[in-house]
Automatic annotation (TrEMBL):
Domain RNA polymerase sigma-70 region: 19-87
Alphabetical keyword list: DNA-binding, Sigma factor, Transcription, Transcription regulation
Key word DNA damage present: no
Source organism (scientific name): Conexibacter woesei (strain DSM 14684 / CCUG 47730 / CIP 108061 / JCM 11494 / NBRC 100937 / ID131577)
Keyword RNA-binding applies: no
Protein name: RNA polymerase, sigma-24 subunit, ECF subfamily
Amino acid sequence: MDADTLPLIAHDPVAFETFYRDHVEAVQRFVARRVADPHRAADLTAEVFLAAIESAGSYRADRGSPVAWLFGVARIVVSAEHRRAAREQRANARVDGRRLLGEDDVERMQARIDAAAQARALFAAVAQLPDGERAVLELVALDELSVAEAAAVLGIRPVTARVRLHRARGVLRRQLFDDASTTVAHPLEAS
């Protein structure tokens, strides 16, 4: 590829493929001399070609050949990676040797995560209930109204409210515990 056609790689897939095939090994060698991790070297090689696509329109033939320009792009990409790695290393060094969380803190955090997961599952199951059953359940379990009070709020008979509450609890029990006979104490069980 010559200097006149290099800008085409920004928008012509065929031109880019030709450019890539012509130069990928040279870029890989360039990166491999500067980066020890083979996976990171492969990622950086890809980043070099992405950067080349993005900056192809700014290529100027009077400043060097397409290969020289590509190595300039590669140098910038690799230098940016070295700066990023150095920042990461400095940040890790600041934290090294310091225990951010004590053993009790880790246990409390795990308990919070577990509780949040259970709450998310519960809210998802409640959201799938029919409107009438969900309304009674929310009034009784969340708003702490009696079944009779929930019935009055919804304008239904107390016996209808009890039936809806019973159905809602049954559905949730099956969805959350996968066993209708489970008798695990749960806040939804309070009446």
